[in-house]
Each structure stands twice: as C-alpha cells, then as structure tokens.
Amino acid sequence: MKTQINTLVNGAVPAKIARVDDKAAQQPGSSFEERATLKRRVEEENPTVMKVKLYGVEVELAANISCSGRNNGWSAIISEKEAEAILGYIPTHTYQINYELTVDANLMVEISWAIRRNERCEWKPSGYLFIREKNITIL
Fold first, then answer.
1. 3-state secondary structure 37-90
2. What residue spans define the domains of the chain?
3. The pairing of beta strand 49-54 with beta strand 57-65
4. 45, 70, 71, 82: which has the highest count of C-beta atoms within 10 A?
C-alpha cells in the first residue's frame, strides 16, 4: 500500500474548505517536518504520476517538475462533472470554467478554477478551495 496523506491536517487560517461538512473541524495544522517527511516518501512512490481518489472520483495527477528537477507537486485539469462530485455543487455561470486539482509541494490539496468569456479571451484565476487531506486516498 502506498503512503497516505490522510493523517495530515491543513491548518491554514482562514481555511477555505470545499465541503460544508468539513468546515467544523478547524484544528492546528500538521508540522512542516511531518509534511516534509511524508512528501519525500510520497515523491519516491509517485515520481511522475500520482493517482488519487476523493469523494468517489479517481484522478491521475502529473508531477510538476521544475527546470532543476525538483518536484513542485502534482496537478491535473478535471472535468466539470468531476469538480461537481468533489465540491458537492457547481455555481451557475455564463463563462467557460477550467477546473484544476492540485497537490502542492507541502501536500496541501486544493481545487482551483479559472474563467473566460469565450475562446478569444485569456483564462483568469477566479477562486480556489482546499480539500481536507483526510478525504484523499493515493492509489
């Protein structure tokens, strides 16, 4: 079985949490040392691709490798249907929306989105929400 990150706690204040049922559980966050140790183990097991499951959705995240060869986390563009399953809702919109699921270098998990009016416009970051690490399973 692969190393899991579900024991970590995101202690960012104020934490913008994706699901309403997770908002009540605000706690002190995991230490930097604990996150660094877990990151090294997760990085060894998933050098280029990490498959995760959260809220019944399986996503394959690609590693974000810098020019120096350092891993800066994993990310993937996800569909609107996957984003709805993860967030529990999708806001009504008239714009095109691009959703991205990210596990960053500190093993903090977030879903972010960018919007644009049409194909001629640039993508503009619009928002993000954290996802509690306890809801993630690394496959």
1. HHHHHHHHHCCCEEEEEECCEEEEEEEEECCCCCEEEEEEEECHHHHHHHHCCC
2. 20-138
3. antiparallel
4. 82
Rounded to whole angstroms, what are the CA distances from 92 to 10, 20, 84, 89, 127?
28, 18, 12, 9, 14
- Phi-psi category of residue 107: left, alpha or beta, with phi > 0 → left and psi -120 to 50 → alpha: left
What lies within 8 Å, CB to CB, of 107 at 6+ separation is 5, 8, 35, 38, 39, 42, 133
What type of residue is 135? N
pTM: 0.86
pLDDT digits 0-9 by tens, 27-73: 667 888 888 899 999 999 999 999 999 999 999 999 999 999 999 99
Which tokens go with 97? 């929306």
**Which residue bears the tokens 């954290």?**
130
The three-state secondary structure class of 17 is strand
